[in-house]
Design a protein that fits this description.
about 280 residues; about 40% helix; globular; disordered N terminus; Putative deoxyribonuclease YcfH
């Protein structure tokens, strides 16, 4: 039997080494006027760096302003697959130019979502390919959203890899085992969100348990998917410590060991996101 999963924090959690929230959305209305407090609470929980993800061109300036205001906050840029039908198309050249910003550390989030927006599948695929090309040209990692589109996702990612190498993280991974295996075979990373801490998510925990430790990241995807004991409430970057506690249990490690491993993985995947010495 696998060990019982708990995301409850202990007094010793304050002694954890640095954690990173590799994926959140600080520009969302849920956090309006609170970013100072969010960053401070994250730091108090050991979360020293945060990547806030831009999902549409109309939000770019706000995301840049947020990342520019805090040394430990970085951003990515991409067009979310669920926004493809309502936002102007983003070309590879535009993505490459936007990514020149010094605090832009990745391309995306992009991907495929056939659960909510299957009607725009063709446009999503075109957009995904543009993002892959931008990742290849810039050397920045791709940030992938995948929902109910495993076969097409694997096919398009593999096609891109055959053309030219690139790095990638499958954010908030909750897809099937086959897509996880394919992503890992291509050298990609899987990111663990609060979903892994949900009591009924044993299948997801099993997928992570089979993954190499050096290919695992942690994230909140806040304001969504808060782990226990905050499930059902607004998520925030500080809560990545609760997901990391579950990750440590999955891998049979101490919390300090898991935090150190996932932070080292983040540094390897996101080399731009290093704090100045």
């Amino acid at each position: 039997m696998p060990p019982e999963i708990s995301a409850e924090m202990s007094p010793d959690d304050a002694l954890l080494p640095e954690l990173v929230d590799s994926h959140c959305h600080l520009d969302f209305p849920d956090f309006e006027g609170e970013v100072d407090q969010l960053v401070a609470r994250a730091a108090a929980a050991g979360v020293r760096r945060i990547v806030t993800i831009c999902t549409k061109l109309s939000g770019l300036e706000k995301v840049r302003a947020i990342s520019g205001a805090y040394p430990g906050v970085f951003h990515t840029f991409g067009l979310h697959p669920m926004s493809v039908a309502e936002e102007p198309p983003i070309t590879t050249a535009e993505l490459v130019e936007i990514a020149r910003h010094p605090k832009c550390v990745g391309i995306g989030e992009t991907g495929l979502d056939y659960h909510y927006t299957a009607e725009s599948a063709a446009a999503q695929q075109v957009s995904l390919r543009n993002h892959i090309e931008a990742a290849q040209q810039t050397g920045l990692p791709l940030v992938i959203h995948a929902r109910a589109a495993d076969e097409d996702m694997e096919r398009i990612l593999a096609e891109g890899m055959r053309h030219a190498p690139y790095s990638c993280v499958m954010h908030c991974f909750s897809s099937g085992a086959r897509l996880a295996e394919a992503a890992l075979e291509m050298g990609f990373y899987l990111s663990m969100s609060g979903i892994a801490a949900f009591p009924k998510s044993q299948e997801i925990r099993d997928i992570f348990a089979r993954a190499p430790l050096d290919r695992v990241l942690v994230e909140t995807d806040s304001p969504y998917l808060a782990p226990p004991p905050f499930r059902g409430r607004r998520n925030e970057p500080a809560y990545v410590a609760h997901t990391a506690k579950v990750g440590a249990q999955i891998f049979g490690l101490s919390e300090a060991e898991f935090a150190a491993a996932t932070t080292a993985n983040f540094d390897r995947l996101f080399p731009r996101a290093r704090l100045a010495a």
